[in-house]
Amino acid sequence: PVSFGHHLLAYVEMFARDAERLLDTRKRVNRLPLGAAALAGTSYPLDRERVARTLGMEGVCQNSLDAVSDRDFAIEFSAAASLVMLHISRLSEELILWMSQNFGFIALPDAFCTGSSIMPQKKNPDVPELARGKTGRVVGHLVGLVTLMKGQPLAYNKDNQEDKEPLFDTVDTLKDTLRIFADMLAGLTVR
Predict the structure, then answer these.
(1) N or C: which end of the chain has fewer CB atoms below 10 A?
(2) What are the C-alpha distances in Å from 190 to residues 59, 179, 180, 186?
């Protein structure tokens, strides 16, 4: 038989890989584009390596066209964030099942649940349900970013301005979901 602890340790493995993936992503994307200008570079005297070191960056972008025309940094982060959210969504589904009247294996703290409008004795697992829904949003942002970049030539294109909203929303959604999920899991009780 598989214990509850063994089951949860599967998620520990997933989240450990997610953390490694995010750290690896940071190493690749944490590059200084300073000096790339509009796409052809600049003759202004810059010590780009020094600025990169001062800012704690991994290095500088070597090619000005690549620095201004690609958004692979946003896509790579969004892909890593999507995997974190997929793992949270899978765990959410199990928490919802385990908390249901059919199973009754666990209880979540009241602060992360609400009562039913027609069944006051019922406790709805709001945070896991919302996390499941927000996963679709983050995955949608990834698809949107990939679609944004699919046919662009090497140049700074106005299309690229459309990367901010999905990227920033992905960051905010991931941070908020991880924070509230950690708080909720700290109060989970096994019956």
Answers:
(1) N
(2) 47, 21, 19, 12
